[in-house]
Amino acid sequence: LKEKGYPCLLLDGNETRNLFENKYGFDEASRRKQTHRITSLAKLIIKENSIPVVAIIHPFEDDRVKCRADVPGYYEVYLKCSLKECIKRDKKNVYLPVLQKKKKFVVGLDINYEEPPESTTTLDSEFLSPEECLECLWKNISGKLFDNRLTYDKS
């Protein structure tokens, strides 16, 4: 987006958690609060005529339904990948401590991930390279960019 001249701001879930004094945990209730917080930030960014790019694990469909209704130009990308492959790629060592019962609250293990039935775009990141995912995504969104916003007709 930046390379093409679109003003945008990345909202990374982990980085955003560290911006606030009131830090949320990773249990279900805290994840829902974090989603609400990021939704509010995304709406503020849109109000300033920029595109928010939100990178979070978004496990609950009812929260995604709220986001679809509340965020203008909401465009959901589901990076589909099996739990087995996620564990294999785990560079942050998130999964192993939960599997060893040393930690809790990891999506896909002790927090259920509800697969999105209505994502705008689904990319199978288990079989597509990051470059291929980006190419597919750009093909899907490039025609929907207007006035520094992502707009699309859901019908």
Question: Nutshell version of this structure?
Answer:
With 155 residues, the chain is an alpha/beta fold. The chain contains six helices and six strands. The longest helix is centred in the N-terminal third of the chain and has 20 residues.
Order of helices and strands: EHHEHEHHEHEE
Largest sheet: 2 strands, parallel
Shape: globular
Main-sheet strand order equals 1-2
Radius of gyration: 16 Å
Oligomer: single chain
How many DSSP helices?
Answer: 6
Strand content: 5-15%
Low-pLDDT residue spans: none
Report the mean per-residue pLDDT as an integer: 91
Protein architecture, described:
The chain has 155 residues and is of the alpha/beta class. Helices cover 38% and strands 14% of the residues. It is built from six helices and six strands. The strands form three sheets. The chain has a two-stranded parallel ribbon with strand order 1-2. It has a two-stranded parallel ribbon with strand order 3-4. The radius of gyration is 16 Å and the shape is globular. 8% of the residues are buried. The model has no long low-confidence stretch (mean pLDDT 91).
Distinctive features:
single chain; 155 residues; alpha/beta; 6 strands
Architecture blueprint of SSEs:
Elements lengths: L7 E5 H5 L10 H20 L3 E5 L5 H10 L6 E4 L2 H7 L5 H5 L21 E4 L5 H12 L3 E2 L2 E2 L5
Parallel strand pairs: 1-2, 3-4
Antiparallel strand pairs: 5-6
